[in-house]
Amino acid sequence: MVKFLAQRLLLVIPTLLGVAVIVFVIIRLIPGDPIASLVGPNSTAEARDELRERLGLNESIPVQFGIWLWNLVQGDAGNSIARQEPAFDLVLRAFSQTAVLSGAAAIIALVGGLALASMRVLSNNVFLQRASSFVSTFAMSAPQYSVALIFIVLFSVGLGWFPSGGTGSAMGGGFGTTLYYLVLPATAAALVPLGIIARMASSALRDVVTAGWVEQLHARGIPNWKVRLHILHNTVPSVLAISGLQVGYLLGGVVFIEIIFSWPGLGQAVYQAITQRDLPVIQAGILVAALAFVLVNLVVDVLQGLVDPRLRRA
Amino acid sequence: MTIKESAMTAPPLIAPRLSSKKFTGRRRRLSTSAKVAGGFLLLMVLVALIAPVLSPYDPIVGDATQRLLPLLSDGHVLGTDGQGRDVLSRLIWGARPSLLAGIIPVIIGGGVGTVLGLVAGLGSARVNSVVMRILDVFYAFPAVMLAIAISAALGPGISNAILALSLVNIPPVARVAETEVLRIKDAAFMETARLSGASWFSIAFRQALPAAGPGILVFCTGLIGLSIVYAAGLGFLGLGLTPPTAEWGLMVNELRQYTFSAPIVALVPAVLILIVSIACNALGDGLRDRMDVRMEARA
Amino acid sequence: MTRTALSVKNLRVAFGKRKTQIVRGVSFDIAAGTTMVLLGESGSGKSVTAKAIMRLHDSTTSVSGDIHLGDLDLLAQKSGELGKIRGSKLAMIPQDPAASLDPLSRIGSQLAETIRRHGLAKKRADVTAISVAQLEAVGITDPTRVLRAFPHQLSGGMQQRILIALAVMSKPGLLIADEPTTALDVTVQAQVLALFKELVSTLDAGLLLVTHDVGVAREIADTVGVMYAGRMVEYGPADEVLNNPSHPYTKALLNSLPEVGMPRGSLVPIAGQPPAATSIPSGCAFAPRCAFATEVCTTDVPPTVTVGPGHTSACVLALETIEVAA
């Protein structure tokens, strides 16, 4: 088991390295003088020269990469041009907001998706089965921006039930207020993952329910409720895998929700940085998003190994 | 092992080809919802093709005296936007870039991804390992963010957006292609091809590809809907076409500011994209169901 | 007089809304301490018969007729009582051992579950002791290691032995085995069959073994029933049915399947296919493929004729051979 863990951890490192390379390449692709992008248009010539030296821009590309990477690992991604604060600080603050939104969305997606999957596979009612199938197709097709706008028009403008934006911190923050402000954005963000989880969980559930060993349990006289526990246990690995992927997607992909609902999260921060050509924030933002995704996948991998012994074979 | 048993467990002797007969001999039909979806999408494509003829108004020049007219106004079925331009006309014209930006990246990304999958699937363990690990790195980025980052790096414009989306499509297709190729790699017909001394290209494109093809194709059709949504998303963020061009995503963003003053009109492009996305998925499902039956029958 | 482990009369099984008949009136008896082999091709209804006896079907399947396990009327039992009977008085050994054990539970815990279910023990120490004993009884030499293992870590033969152990631990009066050797290697097949023979005699139980493999029938059967298109076309002592077949289908079947010691080039496949359950021809279901078919065969359902002591055949020609012999 320890061996499995160590192995998984080791595999993560090359991936992270690769991520760093790609971000480096993308940054370098952005047209314009990198120095100007890093210190802004209002800098002095001396400041620019000094930065050029520090970042080794007069050296070869691999050296540049090395220096850049070394700085990153120490937590230095430069200072945000727009806000004059360390890029990582800004990004991590934004990320915590995204984590709240994504967390809520993930819970909604998991609960909803599993409910739909159970309806589809376990109920004997044909109508429920068709309905759940339809709902899951609808949900997974729903583009974030469309859903967000429809929700706002329906529930905010139309019915006035929920606020149309913000985190509620202006109202004094607090758990209850945040929750209230979370309802629309989190549900809008949850739809696509919900649909995907519903669909995959249905197929996993169906595979388990029709497995030979389930019939064998009945053949040995094991009571129904116990058989159901076995079935549940066997669906966990697949559900875990899918949910993990969706959480990862949520952490990096809710930018439209954040923009439309004015939720100060990571996606919105990166997008603003792009419009303001704020390079340090762009690179810090993408790195954090990728890092979070990789870590989430790692956790899911390990959890899966815990639940399903067949996966522990290296 | 009796002869019967060995016949039951042997892998297919010839490369499975597309056929539409279920093993009872009856053709499986596409479900009604899939047909409706397909029809709708065909309509969209048609609209895009004949846009200049179909569109009642000029999509770019607007009449400021007629701004923000509601739905079902006289002469403007879907209302007008903030600059007095007819929404319906803009949607019609917008179909071209929006659909193209959805389909082309899937073709390009699908093509490159399939080749990568073939290389990884048919290659040695080492080759496979290297290719898949590199793909894993791209997988570490949430697709949306990757598309945005690449698009931002390359600059505005629709061709850059298409390039960014193509790149984002490559890893998923490559992964599916690799899985499909691995599945048929040890089949008897592959063995025969290898033993006959065929070149890698011949094995890859004349044996492996037709066998793995259906699965990959089905996956790619599923990607089209997603691509259209992402493309419009890039437009929404201003990373694709620039105003005053008509593009669905761009329209969603432009009309966003009128959510409170003209809510229904503001929703129109968003709802259209939603419907197109649902239609793509419904069609993809229908095709997949039909395909799965053929695959099962052969098992 | 040996007791009857299982008595089946006129069993009919139909699937779905359209009530497609899969098993169309099958009758046989199994005496305690004997083995009956149900022989037939895929689609003959033999597996469905076996499952119907265990009552392992869903609500869309209708089962009628008479099934008695000793004195117990199986068709009259409600699901609660069935739960107690299954696994204790009546047990099943499935076809694909790899797919028949919960992949996420250790063997020990799966054994313990069944032991506790049928009240064979309660305390942990007793449960383990019984588990070990049962595994040893089916020929597993290192039971403690196996108990801690997961199914995928064991070979097919090992898995099948565990399934057998699970089936016999409550000393059932009837064992049902559905193609238990089909998924196994030939050498392992022989071991498993030997195990079956030993168990049948030790437990004085009846064994109903479903298979398409004539070799298995020769090895282990005391009685043989040959099924075709949902009917029992021939039934009798193994020696008689396999060496002196009466029904044309049995004869054709025996000539078409390879066996050790057969002369080269003597395999004669049966032309055509068995009919689908939805389109069974009137009269004798085998008539379209039968070399001896007559007019009557296509119009009238053949009667079940006794051709020897305890040996029946459902064929009009059987009548004639008796007349000729008489």
Write the layout of secondary structure elements.
The complex is a heterotrimer of chains A (314), B (299) and C (326).
Chain A: H1 2-29, H2 34-39, H3 45-54, H4 61-73, H5 87-122, H6 126-141, H7 144-158, H8 175-209, H9 212-219, H10 224-253, H11 255-260, H12 266-275, H13 279-307
Helix pairs in contact in A: 1-13, 5-6, 5-8, 5-10, 5-12, 5-13, 6-8, 7-8, 8-10, 10-13, 12-13
Chain B: H1 3-9, H2 32-49, H3 51-54, H4 87-122, H5 125-139, H6 143-154, H7 158-185, H8 188-195, H9 200-236, H10 248-256, H11 263-298
Chain C: E1 4-15, E2 20-31, E3 35-39, H1 46-54, E4 62-69, E5 72-73, H2 79-85, E6 90-93, H3 107-117, H4 124-137, H5 143-148, H6 156-168, E7 174-178, H7 186-203, E8 206-211, H8 214-220, E9 223-228, E10 231-237, H9 238-243, H10 248-256, H11 295-299, E11 305-308, E12 311-313, H12 316-325
Parallel strand pairs in C: 3-8, 3-9, 6-7, 7-8
Antiparallel strand pairs in C: 1-2, 1-4, 4-5, 9-10, 10-12, 11-12
Give the key terms.
heterotrimer; A: 314 residues; mainly alpha; flat; B: 299 residues; 11 helices; disordered N terminus; disordered C terminus
Any overview of this molecule?
- The complex is a heterotrimer of chains A (314), B (299) and C (326).
- Chain A has 314 residues and is mainly α.
- In chain A, 77% of the residues lie in helices and 0% in strands.
- In chain A, helix 5 (87-122) packs parallel to helix 13 and helix 10 packs antiparallel against helix 13.
- Chain A is flat.
- The mean pLDDT of chain A is 82.
- By secondary structure, chain C is of the alpha/beta class.
- Chain C contains twelve helices and twelve strands.
- In chain C, the strands form two sheets. In chain C, strands 6-7-8-3-9-10-12-11 form an eight-stranded mixed sheet, with helices on both faces. Chain C has a four-stranded antiparallel sheet with strand order 2-1-4-5, covered by helices on one side.
- In chain C, strand 7, helix 7 and strand 8 (206-211) form a beta-alpha-beta unit.
- Chain C is globular, with a radius of gyration of 21 Å.
- Chain C starts with a strand and ends with a helix.
- Chains in contact: A-B, A-C, B-C.
- The interface between A and B is large, with 51 and 44 residues.
